[in-house]
Write a structure and sequence with these properties.
The protein is α+β, with helices and mostly antiparallel strands and 369 residues long. It has helices spanning 2-28, 32-43, 48-53, 61-100, 119-133, 147-150, 187-196, 236-250, 304-309, 326-334, 347-353; strands at residues 137-138, 144-145, 170-175, 178-182, 201-210, 221-231, 258-265, 268-281, 284-287, 292-302, 318-325.
Length: 369
């Protein structure tokens, strides 16, 4: 028994010394790799503490119990120290990483590629600026329209070619037994305006329109702007003066000759197409005085049947309407040869033809910058 007590005392002294040594090594570990190697050396299958536990089988039961508990406490103490030191090292490593990746928010931002305004958006704003100076306000309406607003109220009978499916996009939904359509023009906005309140009216209606067509000068979706002026004393002379001022303002030239040719539209009577002077030379088109003409828009006096359809007495009120393609105006003004490129989302094209975000068009400061 005396020999067993001596064995226990010696083993306790060895355990105490080993614990102090291991804890000192843990505390001095400078990085996670060193700490992990220390963990394997102390607690691994061939570690120093594991080697001690393998000697317990040679001892008597009482000594084995005592030393077994002592070795377990040593193992737990060293494992806890390693876990705590690991947390400290991870925190220090994170601090170093954050310091290395710190951003000084007081420094000026790195230059980023500047965004560009699409020519269609720019020309739309130019048109709004010009007509805004004339007293027109902007009116809007939905892209999906009913049959009355898109066709019937505009004096288009059921057999009119524009109602055919090869020209118009119909949707499955119906209203009053008639299918809804993607609006083929922004004229329904004029109808909605007149139905919403009594005259006088002076509005323009820019927006998207849809027709079954696709080539260099036509796309299934395109942009239009239509205008409406309803008053008691409005006449054709007002229409001609308004549109003449418009084309000279939009193309920023005072020498543009204009002419009005008789035409036909079901919603105006009389109707006309407006041409502007131009010259073609060397494969280039130049707007202005020349020996040729270019059709630019359609217009006319609002048909009495259209006024009656919206509850306006044509014996008291009359007015004019006009419509033009915004995309076409942009192509002519800025020399864009193919309408389809407007919708291809090519950043190189947009950088070339686009406008700066601060290039806000005004009739006083200039439409083009």
């Amino acid at each position: 028994m005396a020999q067993d007590e001596g064995t226990v005392q010696a083993a306790d002294a060895d355990v105490g010394g080993l614990q102090r040594a291991l804890l000192a090594e843990v505390a001095s570990a400078g990085d996670l790799d060193t700490l992990d190697q220390l963990r394997v050396t102390a607690l691994g299958k061939k570690g120093r503490i594991t080697a001690l536990t393998k000697t317990l089988g040679q001892l008597d039961p009482d000594t084995r119990k005592h030393l077994g508990q002592r070795y377990n406490r040593l193992k737990e103490t060293v494992a806890a120290a390693i876990t705590a030191r690991k947390a400290e090292l991870e925190s220090e490593a994170l601090d170093v990483q954050l310091q290395a990746e710190r951003q000084d928010v007081t420094l000026p931002a790195r230059p980023l590629p500047a965004g560009r305004i699409h020519p269609v958006s720019q020309v739309t704003e130019e048109i709004i600026a010009i007509f805004g100076d004339m007293g027109f306000t902007v009116a809007e309406g939905p892209d999906v329209e009913n049959d009355f607003n898109n066709f019937s109220a505009l004096n288009m009978p059921p057999e009119h070619p524009a109602r055919q499916m090869h020209d118009t996009f119909y949707v499955e939904a119906e209203q009053d037994g008639r299918p809804l359509v993607l609006r083929t023009h922004t004229s329904p906005v004029q109808i909605r305006t007149m139905l919403a309140g009594p005259p006088p009216h002076r509005i323009i209606a820019p927006g998207r329109t849809y027709r079954c067509d696709y080539d260099m000068t036509h796309t299934p979706m395109f942009h239009q702007v239509e205008g409406l002026m309803i008053d008691r004393r409005t006449h054709m002379g007002h229409l001609k003066g308004c549109l003449t001022d418009f084309v000279r303002a939009i193309f920023e030239r005072d020498d543009i000759p204009v002419r009005f040719r008789p035409s036909f539209f079901p919603f105006t009577e009389p109707s006309a197409e407006m041409d502007i002077g131009c010259k073609r030379q060397g494969g280039e088109l130049t707007i202005g005085a020349g020996d040729d003409w270019l059709e630019i828009l359609g217009c006319g006096m609002v048909h009495p049947k259209v006024l009656r359809a919206v509850g306006v007495d044509p014996d008291v009120w009359q007015g004019f309407a006009f419509g033009m393609g915004i995309d076409r105006i942009a192509m002519l003004k800025y020399g864009i040869p193919d309408l389809r490129t407007f919708f291809e989302a090519d950043l190189r094209w947009l950088r070339h033809y686009g406008f700066g975000a601060l290039d806000v068009p005004t009739t006083r400061g200039g439409l083009s910058r």
